[in-house]
Amino acid sequence: MIDRGVPWASAVVGLILVFAIRYRRGSKADRHPLPAIVSREFEIGWTAATIFLFLFVFWWAASAEIGAYSVPRDAIEIHVVAKQWMWKTQASNGAREINELHVPVNAPVKLILTSQDVIHSFYVPAFRLKRDALPDQLTETWFQATKTGTYGLLCTEYCGTDHARMLGRVIVMEPEDYARWLSAQPEGDDLAHQGERLFSERGCAGCHAPGSTVHAPDLAGIWGRPVPLEGGRIATADAAYIRDSILQPGRDVVAGYRPIMPSYAGLLSDGEIQALTAYLRGLGSAPAVARTPGLPDLRSNVPGSAPERSPAMVPGAPVQDRPAPAGPAVRP
To answer: Where does the record place the Cytochrome c domain (predicted)?
Structure first.
């Protein structure tokens, strides 16, 4: 059976050949003079205007796209771990959910995604939101829901037998309802406190505490700062750097230190690495963040921010019971 496009393609190619031969340079074909309006100045002006329009549209679209990746400073932070075949979410205050995500309306929410096994893709069609969750890597995205309701959550990367059943929902609530829902969740330690315990239990404090006899970098206040590495390179102490330093400590060795730290690959889960990262971020200092009207103080959920430091936030200090920070924390 002949493809329907073949006759049309043949007709176009035939016309091109006929016109190329009939009106070739030097042929006796009748050529009427061009209209007076078609001049060199007109062609130059039209071409310049077209180029300017193209560049303007390109700049406008690129600016809007780049701006969409800039997470607002007051965004509520949610950690998402994908696993065959479920979505596990945890807010910075410790509230955990499986295949559900509660968020307040008209509030920006930052998602930090990773995967425990294969590549998954976090997709909320109603929000035009899609971001891959990769094993052994962190990816980020953000959104701000503008209408309350329940919206479907899908995985759009084939991830195994039950890929089509890896479903969830995003529940967008009024700020007051969200605050009540949040306060009704089982109490538990926030990510920073979990990381604080892990920092001691896993032996990190034995090397990185200020009074340690082992020559290792002091991690207090390191978050967000440049770190000089061997070979003259500079790295920024962000979530990706912390994760790589835990799993691949020999790759980026801090200048002036020997590569003696063991790898924790296979010894720490993704959730534990997230908790340690939250704790190390809390060791830094940042200006206070304005509260979202109608919501609890979300300062501890804002990337780069931290509550006021206490002795329990210093590496090697004993863990103390403290009240968990107030809330966690959605742009279509």
So the answer is: 190-284
